[in-house]
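Exam prep: given the inputs below (a chain plus zinc ion), describe the expected output before reading on.
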Amino acid sequence: MNNKPNFSNLLKCKGLKVTKHRNSVLEVIESSNRPVTAEDIYIILKQKDISINLSSIYRILDTLVANSLINKFIFEETNKTCYEMNDMQHKHYLICNGCKKVFPISGCPLHAYESQLEDTLDFTITNHKLEIYGYCKDCKKK
Ligand SMILES: [Zn+2]
Ligand SMILES: [Zn+2]
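Solution:
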């Protein structure tokens, strides 16, 4: 037996059919500690000997996004579409200019600043975007 996380309930919960590939894609996204691209998922599944083509992965990702199981977002700078589990948390990211990896950071430093702006400028803020660029630990060494 294996102790892999089982996403069947999550899928059933949304009224989606449970398939091996949907489970595998969710498992890759869940076990990654950073947002992944469809290509990342493809490579990881291939290493696990799971045969699936890239267009099927995109189809699965679209379904999962449409059912709010995962989030999809595009980083403007790198123009890469990334996916992560939808844990309903407001997050920001560090993006490495070298290897283009994306690192989630917890917490948001802007909420206090937002309320200050709302007060002083009489502006109602609905959301914001913040991406921080630089070089990761590995790329700094190079
Ligand atoms: Zn890097
Ligand atoms: Zn924020």
